[in-house]
Design goal:
elongated, single chain, 18 strands, ten-stranded mixed β-sheet
Length: about 950
């Protein structure tokens, strides 16, 4: 087995060895489509492919009879759509619209409504012919296209729209019953067969709703089998109405008892075909609505009622689970039903305007009953159209609710829906929908319910157009719908038209529904299972890819300016178990820059499978657990050093590439397992069982997988590749919660002195400025802390002969250095305390020991000195004293930044020995300090200009 090793031996980056994946699970997406007779679309037919009698080819489908898919185009789509689009409008409310808005505006409203519907149907057809359609209809299409958050929220609102639509149809049905059999009814006379009143009407609505419930409990197939017969009855009744307009002469129409705006004795007139009547009905003539307590009618009211009556275009798509061939039946059946109902409404509107004065249409919405040559035609048409529409909406809402529960959109909240299914019929979903319909019926007024219904349906249509527009704009190769009569222009027009008309109908309802939709999106994003989005795919990912690619190409590295520099971090780790605090800390230090967590797996590329592919999934799970804004990159290489070079060169893309490399420190401290420690804020059991146990940790006493020489070589490689470098030590002690609460911890310290070669020629060189930049970033995170900069006065030549503690110019030199540092801090807009350190400016044994440190950063040929045992001992004593100086001032320090001297050149003849001593000196320098970062910057990162 290949070993997976660390780049160092630090607790934060302990070595690990990942097990191989026991097996690979593969999932196959069922493809489903139709071929519309195109010769250049023929494909080889797999065994699971079935061709129907019309030459349409279905992929991945079961035998329809065995899968419960038994409905064809006419019975399954055309009939439900046509009946839903007739609904209560055709016999009850077309006169209301024409009488108030006039013929011209009515025809304009029908054109606007049907254009919106046509573009939306084009979007529905495009989506429905791009893959397998299952139960749930429009919700299924939107959720699988827009993803869980938008799909679930729109599906919920579409479910509510169907509930409201069912209530509207029931209200229209009861209105027709009362006008026929109530007091003053056509068939019942003045006494009436049925009592009237708001609560009596609610009772009758409940009885009809319960009758629909019983039909639904028996099964949707019963309704589907009778829908053709019902449509035939409605069509006959509508034809009888047309004939009546042409054949019947002038008549008197009574005022309904419900109309309190006119005396009951007032007689309304029907003129028959009359050009004067047509002329008077061409323009607008808005008045009060006698069913809404005298509320004034306007364009929005009439359009809301009109659109509510023609919102049934999704009725066929809602039956997708019962259709033999959804991708064929939905486009063909829906488009033909739309055309059929549009022609029917235009003819009906024209005949009404030609024969009936607007006063009659405004004051008796059921005047057709008195006009028809055989009045029962109108009564039968009203009852069958409204009952079938209400039943269709009730079935549709229950199927959507069932789909929401199956998809676990709201978690376990809807589990009772799944448990309440019997022989494929969602009993619990039907009952739940029935209860909600009862609640909507309490509103009473059909016109008010119609506006709510219109806004909710329009929002679902808006989402459908948005889904199709988004996936079209992303240019996804797999979006190849067989329905070709659409483009992004039709989607955009349908979206804008729907949005505008929502607010025209009722701004309050429109705003409320959009806000509710956004709240649902946020709630589902926060609480819904992420696995669903991963399984379905989300258009948000495709859109982000499209935009990110565009902006990455625009992000030109040649135009980079130091004013807009930001840290782009590559943190090299091995075992996530031991590096949790460091991963969390670097996430804070990146300052909205790029953050990559890199990992090297040591192995051979000759293996059959690349195990890093599976590693990436586990590392992404780790990133999710840590809640950091980072990418995870793993690579396979023959050595850790080679793998690190891969990551540094190839991580990121375009101008977004790491400029700062962060490593854990190489020492012998035992790693700490933050996944297992009971007091750790990163504790989890998610990586402790099964295949997730591929983050092992180096135990105390185990041999490291990387030696000190390779570690120093990696440091040299980083600097030679012109990357800033940070070596982090003691971060297993970092406790962000304690730092934020403790009154004892007060400072972030910066030590801008190269301990290996102490000078004060320029206290703010490139390395020091880079340290200051990082310190200021962390100061913004820990606002209650104070930044301290330690001004370490030194003798510039390091010559003991030049030290003179009695020199009268020494205080002036110190003042000059302090003023220079204060001016630099002021120019950089950095607020910090300056702490003066004199130890390096005195002629002591400590300063004389510092002279030998150059040999650890330069080759022996340059210094002319060899690394003797005496030099080693003196160097260690010097570092121990430097460590003591820092430690004495770090009692209240949360974090220290220390100048990191460059490592010895790799071409040194005694590099192995010098590199070991180099790391030994760094270990002594940072011993027993608080969390410490050794920093070496190679590029300018600060600016003093605007």
């Amino acid at each position: 087995m290949n070993s997976q090793t660390s780049i160092n031996g630090d607790p934060e980056t302990a070595p690990i060895a990942a097990p191989r994946t026991a097996g690979r699970a593969s999932s196959m997406m069922r493809s489903f489509g139709t071929l519309f007779g195109s010769n250049n679309s023929v494909e080889r037919r797999p065994p699971s492919q079935n061709a129907n009698e019309n030459g349409y080819v279905e992929f991945g489908m079961q035998d329809p009879d065995r899968s419960g898919r038994t409905l064809g185009t006419f019975a399954g789509v055309f009939s439900p759509v046509a009946l839903s689009m007739f609904s209560a409008l055709v016999f009850i409310r077309v006169g209301f619209i024409v009488g108030n808005a006039g013929l011209y505006v009515t025809l304009l409203q029908f054109v606007i409504a049907y254009i919106i519907l046509l573009f939306t149907v084009a979007s529905v057809c495009a989506i429905s012919t791009n893959g397998a359609i299952e139960g749930g209809g429009v919700y299924f299409m939107i959720s699988r296209t827009l993803g869980l958050e938008f799909g679930g929220s729109i599906g919920t609102l579409f479910f509510l729209a169907n509930v409201v639509g069912s209530a509207m149809a029931i209200s229209g049905c009861v209105e027709g019953i009362m006008n026929n059999f109530g007091p003053g009814g056509y068939f019942s006379g003045e006494a009436g067969f049925l009592p009237d009143g708001s609560w009596w009407r609610f009772l009758f609505c409940t009885l009809i709703n319960t009758l629909m419930l019983l039909v639904c409990l028996i099964g949707a197939s019963l309704f589907a089998k009778t829908s053709v017969l019902i449509l035939g009855i409605v069509t006959v009744c509508l034809l009888a109405t047309y004939i009546s307009f042409l054949a019947e002469g002038p008549k008197l129409v009574p005022t309904p008892d419900e109309n309190t705006l006119l005396p009951n004795t007032t007689q309304l007139i029907y003129t028959g075909l009359n050009t004067t009547t047509l002329t008077n009905n061409l323009g607008e003539s808005y008045t009060q609505d006698y069913t809404s307590k005298g509320k004034m009618v306007d364009f929005a009211t009439t359009f809301g009622v009109l659109f509510a009556g023609v919102t049934g275009i999704m009725a066929g798509a809602n039956m997708s689970g019962e259709l033999k061939s959804p991708s064929k039946s939905i486009p063909l059946g829906t488009l033909s039903a739309v055309a059929f109902t549009f022609v029917s409404y235009v003819i009906l509107s024209f005949l009404m305007a030609f024969t009936t004065p607007h006063e009659t249409m405004q004051n008796n919405y059921l005047f057709l009953l008195y006009v028809n040559f055989w009045p029962p035609f109108t009564a039968i048409g009203i009852l069958t159209a409204t009952f079938s529409t209400g039943l269709s909406n009730l079935i549709g809402s229950s199927r959507i609710l069932e789909a929401l529960s199956k998809d676990q959109v709201f978690g376990s909240f809807l589990n009772f829906i799944l448990k309440g299914t019997w022989k494929g019929n969602p009993i619990a979903a039907v009952v739940s929908s029935w209860v909600l319909v009862e609640c909507i019926l309490l509103i009473g007024s059909l016109n008010t319910i119609a506006q709510i219904n219109s806004v909710l349906f329009m929002l679902s249509y808006l989402a459908t157009n948005l889904a199709c527009l988004g996936i079209e704009l992303t240019g996804a190769p797999n979006f190849r719908p067989l329905f070709k009569y659409f483009s992004w222009h039709t989607c955009l027009f349908g979206l804008i038209g729907t949005l505008v008309m929502m607010f025209v109908i009722n701004p309050i309802y429109a705003s409320s529904s959009i806000i509710l939709c956004l709240l649902l999106v946020i709630a589902l994003h926060l609480f819904s299972p992420a696995t669903q989005s991963a399984q379905w795919g989300s258009i948000s990912q495709a859109l982000m890819f499209h935009q990110v690619r565009k902006y990455l190409l625009m992000l030109d590295p040649r135009k980079d300016h130091v004013k807009f520099w930001r840290p782009q971090m590559l943190l090299l780790v091995s075992s996530p178990r031991s590096c949790c605090p460091l991963v969390d800390f670097v996430n804070d230090m990146k300052k909205s820059g790029l953050y990559i967590i890199g990992h090297v797996r040591v192995g051979s590329h000759t293996e059959i499978d690349d195990e890093t592919l599976e590693d990436n999934k586990q590392w992404l799970s780790f990133v999710d657990h840590m809640r950091v804004k980072a990418f995870a990159e793993t690579t396979l290489a023959k050595s850790v050093r080679e793998g690190v070079q891969h990551l540094i060169r190839l991580s990121g893309i375009g101008a977004m590439k790491p400029n700062t490399i962060v490593l854990g420190f190489y020492d012998n401290e035992a790693p700490k397992d933050f996944f297992q420690t009971s007091t750790s804020p990163y504790k989890t059991d998610g990586f402790n069982t099964g295949e997730m146990q591929n983050f092992p940790i180096r135990r105390d006493g185990e041999e490291k997988h990387i030696d000190v020489t390779e570690y120093v070589e990696i440091i040299s490689d980083i600097l030679r590749m012109k990357k800033n470098l940070c070596l982090c030590r003691h971060f297993h002690r970092l406790d962000k919660h304690f730092i934020s609460k403790s009154k004892h911890v007060k400072y972030i310290d910066v030590w801008p002195i190269n301990v290996f070669d102490p000078k004060t020629e320029n206290p703010f060189d490139v390395v020091s400025l880079f340290m200051m930049q990082l310190a200021v970033i962390m100061l913004a995170k820990w606002k209650h802390l104070t930044l301290r900069v330690f001004l370490c006065e030194t003798n510039d030549t390091n010559s003991t002969a030049q030290f003179d503690t009695h020199d009268p110019n020494m205080p002036q030199m110190e003042i000059f250095s302090r003023m220079k540092l204060e001016q630099s801090l002021k120019s950089l807009r950095i607020n910090a305390q300056i702490m003066e350190i004199q130890e390096w400016a005195r002629d002591t044994e400590f300063t004389r020991h510092s002279r030998i440190l150059k040999q650890f950063t330069q080759s022996a040929e340059v210094t002319g000195e060899s690394v003797t045992e005496d030099n080693i001992n003196r160097s260690l004593l010097y570092m121990q004293r430097a460590n003591q100086i820092i430690r004495e001032r770090s009692d209240q320090t949360a974090l220290s930044f220390i100048y990191l001297a460059a490592p010895p050149p790799i071409d040194s003849p005694n590099f192995r020995e010098i590199s070991a001593r180099y790391m030994e000196l760094l270990t002594e320098l940072t011993a027993e300090l608080p969390p410490t970062i050794l920093v070496h910057g190679v590029s300018t990162v600060t600016s003093t200009t605007l």
